[in-house]
Structures are given as C-alpha cells and as structure tokens.
Amino acid sequence: MKQCHTSDDGAATCQRSLDPSDSPGHLTINQLLLESRTGLERVHASDLEREMTAGALVVDTRPVDQRDRDGDLPGAVVIDRNVLEWRLDPSSPHRLPIADDPARRIVVVCNEGYSSSLAAHTLQRLGLIRATDLIGGFQAWAALRKQSD
C-alpha cells in the first residue's frame, strides 16, 4: 500500500509500505501456514505407524544433512522438497510409480511440521485430496520414540 504525504508547497511524495499486511492479497508466513493447515487432517506422531499400516505413503522431505544428523524415518519414502509435487502428482511424467492413486493418503514429514503443512496443502491443490502432514514433524516422532525406549 502506498502512503502519500503533501508538503507545504503542494508537492506529493509517496512511499510504499514495507508491511505485508498493508498490501491486499499478501499474507505473512504465519497467515499462510494457518490457511494451509485449515484443510489438513494432521497426523499425531503417535498415529504415524497406524497410518502406515493402513497404507499411507509417508514422505520424508527433510534435507540430507538433517537425515544424516537425526536418522531416517523407517518406512518413509525420501523425496526432496524441491521436486515433491513432480514426484507425487499422478499426472506428472516425472511421478514415482507409487504415486498413481490421487485418493491415497499421503503424510508429509519435515523436521518440525512447518514446511510439511505448506507442502501438503500444495499437494491437495494438485488433487491429492488426502494429503496431510505430521504434527511436530520428525522431531515429534523421534521424541515419542525416545520416550518409549
């Protein structure tokens, strides 16, 4: 949004606001995250194994350095975040063979459950209507596993 001021001599000067909330159609990341999560039936770490047993495709989007540091998520398919949509969209010529059913439950897992919400929302927009994510991400799953050991 522009803010304009008129000086004493009648000259107008305008300055564009740097606050994104002043611009129509622009969201903050927190607003976008909230909007993305509205349509998700998010999964709790304690329910992840049940989801996998029921046939959900669990997708680990964490970068390799996080996987090296914290370990793998057993049973998950690793797909880099930057190619996620191409690998899972059933209409994509670059999709993985396991991504052939738009009605399949997909649980996206990132490190802490933020970027996975955005990714799951994007997958839903591509027609993968049962896409969702893991609340708290890999860290929540790892903490739960540590408690049970």
Question: How many DSSP E strands?
Answer: 6
Q: How many alpha or pi helices?
A: 6
Strand order of the largest sheet: 4-3-5-6
- Give the averaged pLDDT, no decimals: 89
Q: What sort of overall outline do the alpha carbons produce when their principal axes are compared?
A: globular
Provide the gyration radius in Å.
Answer: 20 Å
Structural class of the secondary structure composition? Answer: alpha/beta
Contiguous runs where pLDDT drops below 50 for at least 5 residues? none
Strand content: 15-25%
Fraction of residues in helices? 25-40%
SSE topology string: EEHHEHEHEHEH
How would a textbook summarize the main sheet?
4 strands, parallel
Cα distance, first to last residue?
A: 54 Å
